[in-house]
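Technical appendix A lists one of the benchmark inputs used to test multi-chain prediction within the project. The record comprises two sequence entries:
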Amino acid sequence: MSTATAIELDRVTKQFEGKRNVMALDSVSLAIPRGEMVAIIGPSGSGKSTLLNLIGGLDRPSAGHVRVDGEELSNLSDDGLTKVRRDKIGFIFQFFNLLPTLSCLENVGLPLHLRGWTRKKVDERARELLDLVQLGARMQHLPDELSGGERQRVAIARALSIYPPILLADEPTGNLDTHTGAEILTLIRDLHARLKSTVVIVTHDMNVAQSCERTIALRDGAIVEDVRRRAASPGEDVRRKHTGVGAPE
Amino acid sequence: MTLLRLISWPYFRRHVLRTLLTVAGIVLGVAVFVGMHTANHTVLDGFSRTVDRIAGKTEIQVTAGETGFDEEILDKVQSASTVRVAVPVIEAVVDTNAIDHGGQGNLLILGIDMTGDRSLRDYDLESGEDAVIDDPLVFLAQPDSLMLSKEFADKNHITVGSRLPLGTAEGEKPFTVRGVMKSSALTSAFGGNLAVMDIYAAQKMFGRGRTFDRIDLAVRPGRTIAECERELQTMLGPGFQVEPPSGRGQQFEAMLAAYSMMVNISSAFALFIGMFIIYNSFAIAVTQRRSEIGILRALGATRRQIRWLFLGESAVTGLIGSIGGVVFGVVIARGIAASIGTLISDVYGQTQSTTEALATDPRLLGVALVIGILTSLVAAAIPARNAARVDPVQALQKGKYQVLSAGESRLRAMLAAVLGAIALVCLVAPPLTSASRQAGGARALFYLGFSLVIVVALLLSPLLSLGLAKALRPLLTRLRPVEGVLAADSLIQAPRRTSASVAALMLSLTLVVAFAGMARASYDSIINWMQTALNPDLFVMPSQSIVVRTIRFPPSVGPDIAAIPGVERVQTVRDARIVFRKTPIMLVAIEVASMAQTAQRVPVAGNADQMYRRAGAGEGLIVSDNLALLQHLSLGEMLEIPAPNGLVRLPIVGIIVDFSDQQGTIFVDRRQFLKYWGDDSVNVVRVYLKPGVQMPDVRQRILERFAGQRQVFVLTNAELKAYILRVTDQWFGLTSIQIAVAVLVAILGIVNTLTVSITDRRRELGVLQAVGGLQGQIRRTIWLEALSIAVIGLTLGFVLGAINLYYILQIVQYDIGGMRLDYEFPYPTMLALVPVMLAAAFVAAIWPAESAVRGSLVEALEYE
């Protein structure tokens, strides 16, 4: 794996066992260079979230290799995977997954507490990040007291708490209205540009996909298209072909 | 700490009721532990303190069990070269019912010889004529003289010159208070309720004849206590106990061994219940906080951090609960001590002062804190492990968490089969003979096997729940075609969830069966024994209580009663506690030949005719079944019983069931007793009436015959039996509380499981409503589910309880009281429990059902 590659999947297969075995990913190979912003699209059940979980070390492949920032995840113990998540990956979820009992400041500081940082350092970093996502005035608010967009900003600030080299976002705009979604996307792009992180976004939203440098389309657990664009190139054809979703508004 | 503050504290605050319940679990366990043990220590310490305070400067005491000994022994002891001073003592606890003294009905009378006793004890007077003690003749000349402790006199507003009526062997007699002793260690003995009288007056008043209860002595300067003990033991023989005053405390402790065992069992039970409540609460917390755990894991929390988060919570809960438990335990200890005091007084005849300060042992409190925290940690260990194992992907996506995989089912079944086989080997392999069963190794195997049976049942509970749920499905379907199917399928699809509640119910019911079964078996055995052993029409006693032996009749009482018209036969009985193989047991001196004519007791070992004939001829002894079991005795075995007049060496000619004493009883013919113990006094006269005679008439004649001469109490057969059953009730009083707690825990288990079930199925229930399910249908589904859980739990609980009861009775027989109890499943209690548990399940389901139908449908659908 080249040092310029942030994420590499080598013939990765993921099969869920049950009454009926389900092949979520079927021998997928993929390389994402450092600093790239990639969208993964595809219809429901195509394997997008599974792919993201494997990259994030939340799950293990049934076969194949996943390398993240040079680290082979397949060989790692559970604690090893946790360490990778803790040091290298920031997660952004569709439903924010903020702890409702913690203030914005505490939610953002939580990953740092897990790393054993002192309270003072945690507070300093959390304030810095909340300022970065323009929520400096809402630090002591509880998630319930925020709008959807604000909650997602807090979740993004939390994902950035250690300025991870890789940011994984699962439908980050899926639970937001169009306007707020666009704001969040702008924020992610802005952060990507400023922090030079590798960003992988799973999305149904073609506007999100179009704003990424690269779009990978999945269907039935396999990559069916991998399109790089220099700027914001049209993605209409990809969308129509692989998502079945109607034209963008 | 930070995680506890950030994650745990908000959860506790949001679930105040559940948190309080969890803490209450530990408070309950620790409080019972502290309360029972503190009360027990208080009673034991009270006894030891009384012994110490009365002992004064006494270094050695000479006793012969409760039988006392001839006055001549005093001369022997005084002649010993190692003895500086030796004085005789008589102790008796008398009722002072004539006066009001704040609830304390007993006064400890110390009969002493004033001429020598002041070398060992101080009798400084607060008021009165110093001549009373300076000149012992004043006391001797006035046998009604009494010196009271300042504490007792103050409490009852008694002054010098007052007349105080006391119950004596000669009836109620007025005594004159000649002095009030200054407060000292001595006067504070027995809670300050102490009086002193001349020893010879005491002999007369308490029917001692020419015997003393005890000799207190001090060792000659330059000689050691050990030297003196050796000299006296050699001089007096093995029939006497020569030991420091503390030895009496140890004997008292040994006598209470069975009671202490009950205390330990109750404490363990309370801690077990506490553990169970904590387990349940944490198991629910893990289920409810699965998504929170998933988030933490996704953010980089290691499994260890998650496990320690939950263990930390349990440690804090345990600490808070333990502190609360210690405080609460100390508060309830006073009440428990009073109740133990009553019990000991009723069962053992050892009257206790209940005004002693509580013996709060800092070490015990420390141990209680540690036990509380450890209990909490152990209870939370499995939920914490489950929390650490939560799969972050599933937790964030909400997979089918409650499903039992085929692999896990196989694993559980295999593990249960292996452990079941080991249990079988442990329980069946040791030969079933009593001797081998009592061997240490065999007992250890037995307990291992017994524990494994419970573990196997717990392991199998999800599979059995699944099976029973499937079996119930057709019935539920027939009852309510829609709701029945939904309820049955919910149970079938989530056996793990169902089994949590079923296991709670099963274990609780198992305990209920054990306690109820034990109580029933004991009752039946005691009633059976009473019917065969206690068949006289009347029992005549010198004391109101059958177990108080400090006041006795002279032997002439027997013939006097026999001469009363209407009396066909009398049997005089003298029972006394003696030390046999270092254990205080009961020795009962009876007229065996006469007993053979009236008793219909079938020996459990030996031939009835031979038993009575040989024991009556002084050729053997009869022992109780519990003594044989506890002391490993068998028919024909030669027993050696040290007595004041020599060593009794006789074989066991019969073993009979007898519940007179928990440590066991030896029956000896009265003539042998007179020969070896030289005690001709009588505790009880058993009276048989002529046919057709009116019992109340004879009773009245007996009372009239002794009126003004001596204190006589006449109990009818029914009254005596009622007394014994009342004491038995007291003994098993704890059992009803334990049954109630077990039932409560079972109900709690159902409430908890249903809460989890509803939390878990919020979306599913929301979807049901969204697609047209009526609120009534949802309600009925949950109700039917709860009732089904109760039915499954009851079924498994009864089965495991029935097995468990068999082993509990074995434990009672071999390790606790030596009581051979017949196996009887407590059907009445169990049948009564069926509607109770079904109703409890229904009530428990009301709130979850309402919460399911009343919550926001939108929120429910978004829940996942």
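Residues 5-101+149-242 of chain A form a domain with the Rossmann fold fold (CATH 3.40.50.300). The CA atoms of residues 83 and 160 of chain A lie 16 Å apart. Comparable benchmark entries are summarised in Table A2.
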